[in-house]
Amino acid sequence: MGKYVCCTGLLKNTWDQVCIAFWQRYPNPYSNHVLTEDIIFREVTPSNCLISRRLLTKTSRAPRWMERYLPKHMTNSAYIIEDSVVDPQKRTMTTLTWNISHARLMSVEERCLYQINQENGSWTEIKREAWISSSLYGLSRAIQEFGLARFKNSVTKTMKGFEYVLSRMQGETPSRTLAETATERARETAMAAKVKAKDLASHAQKKQYV
Question: Distance between CA atoms of 122 and 89, rounded to whole angstroms?
């Protein structure tokens, strides 16, 4: 018996903007674990739906207790398949992702539905479902709990990444950049204070010898 989780998220941007951001969301400061993305297949159906399949390569560091069950070359990376269908008439985008690396150890399948929020037509609602399972005898429960915790953490990063890309698309300064700027300025101020203190100490020392 695997783990199932369902949650919803809200982006205060139109469905069109979110769909555009979906294809531009890598790289962003919250997706450093995504190494590559390659389009395997893409077509437009007679009903004008866009169907795509992509292969994503991600870093996926396993906990130490799990590494013994993985080949050495597979402990730090994972391959993910992502299928998506964009329906411009129904104004929905549906994605399905699953891992093809070490799937016997842990399989994670995620389904997302992007649609217009019913309460505010200018916002986009994301319904996210995930199924986590493991067929490793004796450790399946521990592995599923690990996968569930990692999934919840990745959802938070995914939403922050979306917000970052959407802000950048609209010409705004993303909050991440503002935080980095503040940190950089603080470092510069601290460095300047350190240099000034060093100069004052050196000046005082010279006075002693005059």
Answer: 16
Beta strands at 50-59 and 34-44: parallel, antiparallel or unpaired? antiparallel
C-alpha torsion 158→162→168→174, nearest 10: -60
Q: What angle do CA 11, 133, 6 make, to 5 degrees?
A: 25
Residue 192, pLDDT score: 58
Whole-angstrom Cα distance, residue 117 to residue 125? Answer: 5
Query: Alpha helix (H) ranges present in the chain?
Result: 15-24, 64-67, 140-169, 175-209
Tokens found for residue 158: 């995914």
CA distance linking residue 167 with residue 107, whole number of Å: 33
User: Could you tell me how many helices (H) and strands (E) the chain has, helices first?
Assistant: 4, 7
- Residue of 36, 71, 37 whose CA lies nearest to 54: 37
Residue 69 — φ and ψ, nearest 5°?
Answer: -95, 0
Q: What is the mean pLDDT of residues 176-204?
A: 52
Token pair 């870093």 in the structure block, residue = 59
pLDDT over 60 at 89, yes or no: yes
pLDDT at residue number 102? 81
**For the chain, how far is it from start to end, CA to CA, in angstroms?**
83
The fold of the 3-175 domain, in CATH, is: Alpha-D-Glucose-1,6-Bisphosphate; Chain A, domain 4 (3.30.530)
pTM exceeding the 0.70 threshold for the entire prediction: yes
